[in-house]
Amino acid sequence: MNLATIDILIILCYIVITLFLGFYVSKKASRDIQSYFLGGNEIPWYYLGLSNASGMFDISGTMWSVTILFVYGLKSAWLPWLWPVWNQVFIMIFLAAWLRRSNVMTGAQWITYRFGTNFGARLSHIIVTVFAIISTLGFIAYFFEGIGKFAVIFFPWDLSYSTAAFNISSEQSYAFIIIAITTLYTLKGGMYSVVGTEVIQFFIMTVSCIVIGYIAFTSVTADQISAAVPPNWKNLFFGMDLDLDWSGYINSVNTKIEEDGFSLFGFLFMMMIFKGIFASLAGPVPSYDMQRILSARNETEASKMSALTIIVLFIPRYLMIAGFAVLGLVYLGPEIQASGAKIDFETILPVAIQRFVPAGFKGLLLAGLLAAFMGTFAAFINAAPAYLVNDIYKKYIKPNATEKTYMRFSYLSSILVVVIGLIFGFFASSINTLTVWLTSALYGGYAAANMLKWIWWRFNSYGYFGGMLAGLIAATIVPNLYPDTSAIYLFPLILLISFAGCLLGVYAGKPDDMEVLKNFYKTTKPWGFWKPVYAELKKEDPHFTANKNFWEDTFNCIIGIIWQMTFVLIPIYLLIKEYYHLGVVIILMIITSLILKYTWYNKIEKQNTKHKII
């Protein structure tokens, strides 16, 4: 497809502005690694929140979301619980504050804060760094797969290259070029560059989302949508079976559902809840989300940032997702059915852009989606090298090197991570496969140890190392033992193996140093099983009080999950013109917002005022 000149100019202007910003802030970012990786803890929470939202608005995830809404209808609103998407609610309610109180730079450095400096702590420090790097490599492969499929539909040049030794497709060539540009501005500007460009990207994406929503709303009628989808497609709720038969509409969709392994939707939902609770209590994985929390000025701003991410992300994003899904169903669905050919459903988004978006807006939208990709990718390649530099090179190899040396190693680490991630990308079979493996298998190995680290005083450094090691091994081996089983159904087995590793390590080693535990508990103040540590602190300070907010936090998390879900459903119901359901969801959004205002927001504002007075 040949883009109009104005579309090409808009895309080129965006790329030039992005590169300019990266170079412009490079002097400020290169002062030291604290500035490079955390922005010197100077960036306001609202910029971090917009940046975080932009970083979650990636092309691969958007392509996947359009695909699942097209295939599963309203029930697709539940499928992001695979991550789980509501881990952001847990972070907002209490985990952001717990994490930010540590005043560390990375999740691996946090290990020293929690477990001390004994041999087990050093092992734990290394294993969480390994996890951070592996997860980043997995996400780079995920991004590589998505951006390649996206770009090849729009850009007309054939960039494939073949030799006797290997073949490079046009998809892979375009992915290389876009990733190289993204890596360049991220290398120069660090966290300042990431946040600055992502704030710009957020506004570009929001305008693009509104445009797509408007096109879909004015181009498709309610009757056209009803005629294009099978019974139950518009039904949010479900029984044990999916009960969605595409026969006579788009027959090949039935094959897609069977390949995904989501037919037993009720069982899938139970697995998502089970996995979601453990994964959410574990806290953010050591990647871009954690880096933004650690970059916040204080614990209150970290919590506000997480809330803002939810507020500004879902409605614009789902305007775009629902818009493209609706346009695809009504106008592409009959063509797909008539052709009878097996299609790649993950290309519905770019094909819909090609067909339905006018010149000018197309350039804006492509710049926005390119921005979304670049923002998310940049966030990951800013986070991962922090572990290599701060937690490996600085800690174990050259602890007394100059800041310039650490900055040079940061650049080298970023390049190395990107190159290895691209190699992994060559072996990715599909976006859906990578999504399910990352969210279910890999994170299944992370959940047990990282949940216990918050809530149990006896959970020592050897337990953490044992749980993480067992989880990583299980996440690698178990899916290969059951190749025909979706990774989400393997989560309980992976979690059980990880828990076994945790308990083996706990009882093979001694409790951690009480002084370390007292410092952690006094500053973080988590709820959970901390009675011996609490007793020691009471001896030193009779006025010390324990965190008794477990039930209040649990209530707020439940309300928060409902609140977050309303932001997903509002744009979908609007674009499929189900106005009764839209009204119900808007009322529910208002009610849950008011509850959270009184039970959560007022509380953190009061704490913030108290800290300022002190």
From TrEMBL:
Coiled-coil residues: none
Ranges annotated as spanning the membrane: 6-25, 45-72, 78-99, 119-144, 164-187, 199-217, 262-285, 306-332, 364-388, 409-428, 434-452, 464-482, 488-508, 555-576, 582-600
Annotated Gene Ontology cellular component terms: plasma membrane
Domain of life: Bacteria
Membrane-topology annotation of the record: Multi-pass membrane protein
Catalyzed reaction equations: L-proline(in) + Na(+)(in) = L-proline(out) + Na(+)(out)
Location of this chain's protein in the cell: Cell membrane
Membrane keyword on record: yes
Entry annotated with the keyword Ion transport: yes
Family the entry assigns: Belongs to the sodium:solute symporter (SSF) (TC 2.A.21) family.
Identification of the protein by name: Na+:solute symporter
